[in-house]
Input
Amino acid sequence: MAMESEETTVAATDMARDCTGRQLIRQLVERGALLPIEEKLASEVPEEQALLFCALLGLARLGHLCLAIGEEGVTPSLDGLISDPTLLKEWEAALLRTPKETSPSLIYSEGRFYLPKYWELEERIVIPTTQMICRNVKPIPIPKLPDSLTEEQKKAVALACHHSLSLITGGPGTGKTSVALEIAHAFAASGRPFISLAAPTGKAASHLASRLEGLSPHLTFGTLHSLLGVRTHGDLYKREGHPLPADLLIVDEGSMIDTALFARLFAAIGPHTHLVILGDANQLPAVEGGSIFADLLKSGVPSVTLTQVFRSDRKEILSTAHRILSGHSLPTNLDLGLAEGNARTVYENLWKHVHPLFPKPQKNRPDPEELLASGSQFRMLSTLRRGLFGVDRINAFLKERFAALAEPGDYLSIPIIITQNDKQTELTNGETAILIQQIGAEATGYFPGGRTFPLHELPPYHYAYCLSVHKSQGSEYDRVLLLIPEGSETFGREVLYTGVTRAKEQLEIDGHPESIARALKRTSERLSGIPARIGLYQR
Output
């Protein structure tokens, strides 16, 4: 019997080896690990590279820029694409047999394989980063700094004044904006008044600019896309060779910037510009590929980590955030029914809990300024956009329930978020607003700063009773209700940390216990070759 069992095992192994790469790709498509379009693209690649090519396409969907093959096996593991242990083992075993060589479809370097697109993007980050690290610059004189600054903050100011590129990282409430203010003061006082402020979202850029208002007549601010003149991926390099006319460029929310936009940013930095990037490396990485801000922190770029929290009212919330980063438990303090997952129960409980916190239909026209102000006081967040308890379903449910309360002639007030930059209205992705609609008439969108647009002029938008944690980055609210449905573990502990740290005063959490536990054990860290390649360039 033992011999029979051994023969069966050998036969199974031989069958697996006989299974061609194309057949395995077909199985992976059938199991949902690969997309049909990825199978089609792989049909143009030589047989011996097809499985590796598909692995790189699949990992790119998860945000990775490359795949490493070495003595320890395949990194990152493909278990983020396929859960079947047999197919996973077969796929990774096939990758280990792939010839380590460059071809028109793949680039191999220092133990890592790339799709050509991501190799080029890394190159567009690695080379200018190395040049900025090595560049000798004339230090900017530092005026007397306020006594209220900590030694960490003073060090951060000095770093920015003495280096072409510097990174300042820290969690909420650690004084990154105060540091940015003192850096800008130093440049303005030294006769370097051309200061630009930028962030991935208009809201984050406006928040930073409000603190520096009046500092210099040459101060400019906006989204990174508008600053760099980027509207489409085809615009990504159009300013190359035409650097920004800035003495100082301060970029906020660095963790939200994806690989392509980082490459575009670095292409626009001239030899006389000091670039300072602020961010929180523990937040979710960019929605698109890469986690470049975290990579740069590992690459020898001059940096300071701010650790002292200045707001005592946030210390309990931030203590919860630090427990998340340590992989400890995240207790829930609200029971809407997400643990059991019964949709009827969850949605009825959710309606009872949140409907008093949103504007109800009313007979008189509401004051848009009051509604906009209340939008920063409370926000409901979900870790998922799609699914039974994702943002899309929750927003559709609440919009329908509030509309059902309206009578003819009533005014409905609907929170929205812009999802696409628009040149004509100058509205940007991530801006929030209030739609006010009298039943039977066209709605009007009201934005901060007194900007108004009729509904037909608005760029694409979503309802925003509930936001995804990803979309909430760059914003903070007095009170946050955080929903963590089943399936949230995909994004790792960073999605929990980011959601929790959106709250300034009050935090309510309900979630699926097993998903929370699994998320705490995972990280959304993404693989790139940027730290290693910068290290090679500096040798």
Notes: The chain has three domains: 20-114, 119-310, 314-521. DSSP finds 20 helices and 19 strands in the chain.
